[in-house]
């Protein structure tokens, strides 16, 4: 199994990766062309993606690097060949969309794309928990006042701090929207959107043929919304998704057939409800059907069935309904 992680900054990707490495022995796969930048964003001793800032001693069981395996490749082709030959091993890639040509992995039946997401205000709080504002560190005056033409001007530390904090948050939002939706930020304004060196590295990563993040997230097989307030809560959330269940890679027969029913239902033209069915014999599909008016009669959604189009209450006037059940269509 190969898991590819994707998601915005400070959503918890690094912690999820290290948790899977620690608990299940996942091997992290890296591509050398992006390693130097990725390491700046996700260092072993960093809590960049921690759901909540904790002392190092409390998170060392996961964040410790001495027992976490990794392999580095020169390009995506080498990585592609390795995972194909070792597909039964547990492997993981953090920020997989930062690797040029990563989507070739989607063709393999052992690849699972997992997005880790979190509300922006929580991600902002996580950023603040490990970063300080240099301009505030250099200010030592708690409050000052001066008089000009009879007017007294007050400048308090808290007011200045709130103002700087608001400006930083606006730059954070601007940068995150640029990454998420691929919005164009003028080159002259790009530096002003960066929060710190780590965020600057993320921006550099985002320029490596990286599409808008929401496009990649929309392809995810599993989406984890990390609103956890502690590491244990996040671990429980990850465990509840049952990522190692191989039916996530290849659904069982019942799931497969039910998804075919859902697909058939999308062809329904009945104004009341969508229903689909398939007829199966010895795990072979022999017929499909969906509800609606019979062949040769105008579709229900084009006015073919007066009963359905008159908004009749459930269970009433059924003797005037022209629509056939999905099972009837499947049989005939």
Automatic annotation (TrEMBL):
Its EC number is 3.5.4.12. GO terms for molecular function: dCMP deaminase activity. Keywords: Hydrolase, Nucleotide biosynthesis. Residues 252-332 form the CMP/dCMP-type deaminase domain. Pfam families: dCMP_cyt_deam_1 (PF00383). InterPro entries: CMP_dCMP_dom (IPR002125), Cytidine_deaminase-like (IPR016193), dCMP_deaminase-rel (IPR015517), P-loop_NTPase (IPR027417). The keyword Hydrolase applies. Gene3D superfamilies: Cytidine Deaminase, domain 2, P-loop containing nucleotide triphosphate hydrolases. It is an enzyme of class 3 (hydrolase). GO terms for cellular component: cytoplasm. One of its GO terms (biological process) is nucleobase-containing compound metabolic process. This is dCMP deaminase. It comes from Batrachochytrium dendrobatidis (strain JEL423).
